[in-house]
Please model this.
Amino acid sequence: MKAKALDQIKRYPGFFPMAVLCLFLLYTPLIIVMIYSFNDSPSITLWGGFSLRWYDDVFFGLEATKLRKAAWNSVTIAVMASICATTISTAAAVAMVRSGAWRGKTASFAVLNLPIMVPEIVTAVATLIFFSTIGFKAGYATILVAHVVFCIPFAYLPIAARLQGIDSNYEQAALDLYATRWQAFKRVLFPLLAPGIISGFLLAFIISLDDFIITNFVKGAGVETLPTAIFGAIRQGIKPNIMAISTLMLLVSILFVTVSYFVGRIGETKQEG
Amino acid sequence: MTQGKQANVAVAANSLFKNYGSVEALKDVSLSINDNEFFTLLGPSGCGKTTLLRIIAGFEAITAGTLFLHGKNIADLPANKRPVNTVFQSYSLFPHMTVADNVGFGLEMQGKDKKQIKRRTAEMLELVQLGSYADRKPSQLSGGQQQRVALARALAPQPEVLLLDEPLSALDLKLRKAMRIELQQIQENAGITFIFVTHDQEEALTMSDRIAVMSQGELQQLGTATDIYQEPKNKFVADFIGESNLVATTVLSGDSTSIQCKLTDRISIIMPNAQGAARGDQGQLCIRPERIRLSNAGESSNLEGVVDGIMYLGTDTQVIVKLDDRQTLGVRTQNADNDRPIVEVGQRVGLHIDESSCRFLAV
Amino acid sequence: MSGLVEKSSFGGLRKPLLLPAWVMIGFFLIIPVLTMLVYSFLTKEFRGGVLWEFSLAAYDQFFFDRGLFGDEPPKIEWTYINIFWRSIVQASVATIICLVIGFPTAYFIATRSPKTRNIWLFLITVPYWVNLLIRTVSMKFLIRDTGPLNHWLMQVGLIDSPIHMINTNFAVQLGLFYSYLPFMVLPIYASVERYNFSLSEASADLYAGRWTTLRRIVLPAVKPGIIAGCILVFVPSLGAFLAPDLLGGAKNFMIGTLIEEQFKGAAGNWPFGAAASMLLLSLVLVVLLFYARSQSKQALHH
Model:
């Protein structure tokens, strides 16, 4: 009993219920939507039994073509934008973490993080105005460019964090053993940095896939991504097929975060050894 | 040891300076290191020894001065162009490569062919007695084994000079002592100049041909282990290497061979004039504690005091004696020596100082 | 000495490595923001574009009311100032709710064993990875008048008629809270995890009670995490669009919805939208500067 009393210095009654409440609040809406996506009733209020009809509707219904096109746009943009952002960020992280102290380092750090610091809606407005001023037609390309820029800090932060945890003696040992800087990067730093690069890539991918506000501003007429298509659809009210799409996207997100989590864990255990 | 053969200079540093902003890490360091020498840079942390090592390796640029390797100016050569390899303090074995890949990395980067790399890697692993560990990952090895792999990796490309940055500091005491002997043997067999950085004076004294003692970015003294122990140049060296009784003193009289220095008001000591001191010079009198012998009071000794403290140290006993003018002296007696009187605190004892081993230090 | 040395294995390649990032962000974010600044001083064109004539009309419209024909003496125009003010209030309330729920959660997680800790962290971060639009739509679905929440409350018998939640301030606050809660939990968790619990023991040893220890010892020590969390919730809440648009409806305008409206359709007013965006950006920069100040002060103390 004594040990328990001592342990209570750290503990506060009520914190555990708060944590449970926190999870409850975070998950309830998502779970409810998941459940209702299997509702057989066309009314979204009443439960009419289990059915997969809304999933069928998403894939083969009236709006299936439109949705498929939007999904294709979303995925291709996310793949390209996250690959570009990850490459750019990896180079930037190596320069920021492994090139000593220099004047302008803080400023450079601020520039790299600017896309996170500027409110999304401001970025959206600025990008729209910019593209319209230089006469660049809004569409697929403008979305892609805007996504690359917006994704840079999200890819940069995990990569730089990982790099900071890698002892610089590793690449110095490689240099000492006659490797060029490129060889030192390719053979030593890159394999050690890989988990950071993967989580940076996954984060950038999800951020691009999820983005609504910037895409909505720079997409122009005719080009839709999944979020803008969903947003357009719910303007007419929430229909059950929206819940089916939402559930599917939710599962994709959860799959991603799980993969990212385990990649991070593998990296950690490797580092410890 | 390099005695008997003509010593070729491997590394020559002239007036090296290194600044980090306003911090002076190296101040006017000049030294030359011979071929096949086991050379040690010794000093407390922050003395500049690691900085000097990293400069020789090519990881740091020098602020001023020159640096030659076998007569070639290497000051502007990047690390991967210098025929110099390093054993890092934390080993820095590439965690994603096998032991063999680690050892073969330098040769691979030099563009050696595969067969040659394989042969040399096996040879090196044999040298450090890890032949059967070639396919393991570094994380599967013990600290001592990792240390050997790091050594094999650095030796594999046959560098002109091997740099070792406190390589034993991560090992436990027993292993450290065993590795000392092994390192010396490897150095003798490989016939490569070793530059060894350590803060451990025992390590330095037991392994090195020559030692450079450093403090606050400056070279304090350079010489063999016996040199720096028996003829310390200044107070720092006398204090840092072994233990010393340092007593403020004045030279009372003397000539070019011997001088007489004041110990207490009544007693003075006559010793060799190692540093060319003259009458009236002020400085420190350095007496090694093991060069003082205790006897019973009144037994043919004109220097007497009272025992103030006793520390049992296993092989020796450290006795603190307070002289009549309140000056204290540390005395070391071997415990195996049954002839010496066993003293207790408060007892009055006589002291016999081996005067020829005492030194006067001006600074 | 190595503590003084900055790692610089790739020193010579700094510029070429950073160039792509600088070019992308400079060309497609910094220049666009400057272009937007210029736009805020241009004249509105009636079909939703701009005329390249200098004008202060956008800012004038924001702050002053000059009557229907623009010839009356200027009075302060409260409409837009009120929208800004409401945004600040909404974002603040959302931040406070996040803090009240987020701090105990973060503290609770940080005091678990490492294994349980990872599971909790995983559970807290998963919703963040779920599309914000979907999360907001889910919330809208849940709290509608005829939604599952009201339905359930009536079935249980707690209420007789549905509580009207959608299109209220409360709904917006709830939506913001729901959107950004993980941003509050994670930085607080990070600083509680670094907190040395022997300080709590020392405090208890010196006769302080648990809650006194929390207030006097723990909170000051984890303050940087709390401030970071508040900033991370407050800033995006201020410019949020989805929560006010989907949950707030027409009556509960925030800055984000106001700006968005200026760029949609013929009713749009680009200079005015640009001006409102500039004001929002300035507001955010002030908050971030305040944050940077407190950070560097913190750094000085250590």
Chain A touches chain C through 92 residues (CB under 8 Å). Chain A has a mean pLDDT of 87. The radius of gyration of chain A is 23 Å.
